[in-house]
Amino acid sequence: MHSEMFIGGAWTAGRQGATRDIVNPGTGEIIATVAEGCREDTQDAIDAARTAFDSGIWSGLPVAERSALVLALGDAVETHAEELATLESLDTGKTLEESRWDMADIAGIFRYYADMAEKDMADEPIDSPIDNTQSTLVREPVGVCGQISPWNYPLLQASWKMAPALVAGCTIIMKPSEITPLTAIRITELAEAVGFPRGVVNLVLGAGNPVGAELAESHRVDLISFTGGIETGRTIMQAASGNAKKIALELGGKNPNIIFADADFDTAVDYALNGVFFHAGQICSAGTRLIVEDTIHDAFVAELTRRVRSIKVGLGMEEGTRMGPLISEQHRGKVEAFIASGLAEGATLLAGGGRPDDPSLQDGFFVEPTLFADCTSAMRVVREEVFGPVITVERFSSEQEAVALANDTNYGLSAGFWTADPERQQRVARALRFGTVWINDFNVYFVQAPWGGYKQSGIGRELGRAGLEEYLETKHVFRNLQPKPLLWFGG
Ligand code: NAD
Questions:
Q1: How far is CA 158 from CA 32, 105, 194, 214, 401, in A?
Q2: Is the CB of 228 under 6 A from ligand 1?
């Protein structure tokens, strides 16, 4: 496998020849050494993507031809799914089973957009109110797109951006997280093998600043699509303002999970765990903020404590592991600081809170599954995105109070609630201010439904038809069938 960047159809170590070691977060071992790009490398990639776009070699192809290549890329992902899943687990620490689900989803995402493009990009007549005229709505690709993705779902998040951009006719420069670049390198190899024209798919590697920053700042980039944290999102918004480029932002979340007393108790307990501990809580939509009705609170928390304590922590590649490590030493430090803040602010620690004592896990970046009760919405651990295996529990006594607590956040990515009452299901689903609301479930997503955040969880939507529209401009073409002088300014 390559370890370089892919710019204008060629693999390159970059102008400075710098490298970065990639670490397995479960063992601390170096698993690869890859190119570390600089600002000039990003500029080279932008040049390549700009030239390819402006030449029309890609945007000028019939949609069916673009879709065929995107479909072929989906097939290639399926063929290489096991290899990609293994790379993803070694790079992120998540269980191999979770990475396999990701790869199946990714193949489906390429197929979905390949299928959608032809019908959804067709010209549409517009009813013109003016006699002897004709109006048409034409959809065209936005242009050169910078695509910056995070480390938690490296290839999944990249595919949400790649597939719609490519079918739309855009050219792309992908910038994976510098700590998890391996599957992005591998899919670029697959794209090269499938035969995308030179300069259509480009890959740059390296730190957010300068490599990603250049994408956000460049006046020759037409759109920046970013998935990552809120602080980086704000920086990117400002950088993008230089040429008023389009922005699509998928940011963080602090996602409530409300348990009403009439919920199916065992399923709600099970999903309170599923909502948080997959990928050690490093999920933007993790339901880390549990809000439980008074009358069942104590029984619910007791059962949750028992279950949290029994979660099998281990290496992602090992059979039987249910939760892997955090992504890095630095990130573990951040999560541990949140746990310390919970204790300092008066939350009651019922499970976890430390590092596992298993001697075989000492070199990895593990934190125990952690449960805090007696929490309030004033605590930092309740308000801010921890991005780790930590659940906090608050209690409520009325539906109104539950909704008010859940909405009391700057974020608005996703929320779930559990109740058997159909009328309450309708009321609460409407009252919650989040981009996705789950009733009696948690963390379900699929390619047909849009994904994105209210409030500070982002701007725009990925997936679904909305995910394609991010990459399209709409043009109104107006034709006068009988032009004649108006003579307003005299004859
Ligand atoms: P991050 O913001 O630190 O980094 C994300 C990407 O941005 C990386 O590729 C990084 O190199 C790049 N970057 C950093 N500084 C930059 C700059 N100044 N200019 C341009 N690019 C820059 O986020 P992370 O720690 O990799 O990912 C975790 C965050 O991602 C969490 O907040 C999580 O909620 C969020 N996330 C959101 C979604 C969603 O769908 N809403 C999905 C996954 C992750």
A1: 20, 12, 18, 18, 38
A2: yes
